[in-house]
Amino acid sequence: MAPYFAAYCAAAAAAASALLAGCMVGPNFSRPPPPKVEQFEHGEPTRGPLVAEGVAQTFSAQAGVPTDWWTLFGSHAIDSAVDEALTASPTLEGAQAALRQSEDEMRAGAGVFFPQVDAGFGASRQKYSPLRVGSETPPTLFNLFTLSASISYALDIWGGERRLVEGLNAQTDSQRYALLATYLTLTSNVVNTMIARAAYSDEIAATREMTGLLREQITLTDAQVQAGTAAYSAVLTLENELATLEASLPVLEQKRAQAEDLLASLSGAFPAQWQAPDLSLRDIALPATLPDTVPSELVGRRPDILQAEAALHVASANIGVATANLLPGITLSASGGYNNTSMGALLQRSGQVWAVAANVSAPVFHGGTLWFQRKAALDAYAQSEAAYRQVVLNAFAQVADALRALENDAHALDAQTRALQAAGEALRLIKADYAAGTVGYVQILIADSQYHQAQIARLQGVAQRLQDTVALYVALGGGWNSAP
Question: pTM of the entire structure?
Answer without folding.
Answer: 0.86
